[in-house]
Amino acid sequence: MSFPVADAHCDFLYYMYNEKYDLNCAKQKQMISRETLENGNVKLQCFAMWIDPDERTMPLQQAMNLADTYFKMLKENPYFVPFSRDFDENGDKIATVLTIEGGEAIAGREENLRVFYNMGVRAMTLTWNATNELGFPAMRKGSKGLTKLGKKIVGEMDRIGMALDLAHLNDAGIDDALSLYTKPIMASHSNARAVFEHKRSLSDEHIKAIAKSGGFIGVNYYPPQLCSNSKEASSKHIADHIEHIINIGGINCVGLGSDFDGMTKVPQDVENPSEVPNIFEELKKRGFSDSDIKRISYDNLKEYLLNFC
User: Fold this and answer.
1) What pTM was computed for the model?
2) FRET pair for 135, CA 20 to 30 Å: which of 79, 119, 185, 285?
């Protein structure tokens, strides 16, 4: 059985804009392309607008540049369509969802958040790996939660119906977000800390809370977050994280959040979307049924996004 794939996170837009990545003529290190997406049966792909803290361009302008890139991509590649309630994964199109990675994109203004929502943005992380005016990332020292402004922005995201993405946020910030946000919550590309200790990964307590909200956790494929020896990372380690999240939060809360084109390293047998079926073969070996695998591969993210689309 060929399972449809829904992926909650990739960084292709940044490299399409900055490195001239081409969906139809891939560069050597490029992971996302028409060929790899179709060979992997990807039917729903979230495209993040990643805000680079080292760029001299202001974050709001970075986001606008990447939004423009996204809409150009749709216009030039008609096999891409915005995800909607009537999207049919059995057809020949690939659904897309635009997201923000790094809340500094909104320049601290609710008005900008609403404009991005009206442009089609359906999810936002509050931070990336650098502290900003909204909160504190997992990859920095400190135990502070969301700032006053961060809490205000979470409230506005809740009100307008934009998904709150906990990826990259520190534990105290996650606690604050969970206490404030009333809709189903997500972690688009986060793994399980109990499987392999990493600051970016989720505690079992947070996995339970996300699942309880009706939320979604996308397991990412970045080797240093999968296992102790990143050179040996493979689909087996991705399956370890998926299986643990299911054991803690249930079958309905977990899916895929690859981080393709945002990784400097890749698993041995999941180098691009065409090799994602290797994860499903590993899950089959562990006794997962076809219906369970389809829920992991596609249905859970699709059903989560329907809360916001």
Assistant:
1) 0.98
2) 119
